[in-house]
Design a protein that fits this description.
The chain is mainly alpha-helical and about 150 residues long. Helices cover about 45% and strands about 10% of the residues. It has one domain: SGNH hydrolase (Rossmann fold), CATH 3.40.50. The chain is globular.
Amino acid sequence: MRDSRIVHWNNGLWDVCNLFGDGLFTSEAEYLNNMTRIADILISRCEKVIFATTTPVNSQNPYNKNEDIERYNRILVPVLRKKGIIINDLHALVASDIERFIRKDDNIHLTEDGIRVCSEQVARILVETSKTLPAKQPPSAATRKLTCGAPV
């Protein structure tokens, strides 16, 4: 992340997975705590942070349920917004056509169309966000020496 001015980040599908039938891997409280911890670290290191909401799954997915995904997105997004994090709602994008955007062989991963539309939306928000950054000043000779470790 050194020299990164923008970070676009996502977590979530494993958190809401009930793989063994004994409940979700991460409770709501743990999820909120972990995600805000990650958010605070990213905010301290980057000028702009973008969070992509967790995408939905096909209803045939035996381990992940859209109700859980939506609930976890709902509890996290307002907290991140209060911190000034930009929200990229990939959930809404994929939910607009789950049959087209989520693979039927595993009910969780994106199809080629899903990859394309999500990539386009991520690229668009990165470009839009980059336009809001102040121009970066070239590093001084002393800074370059410290950063690169080699004399100028």
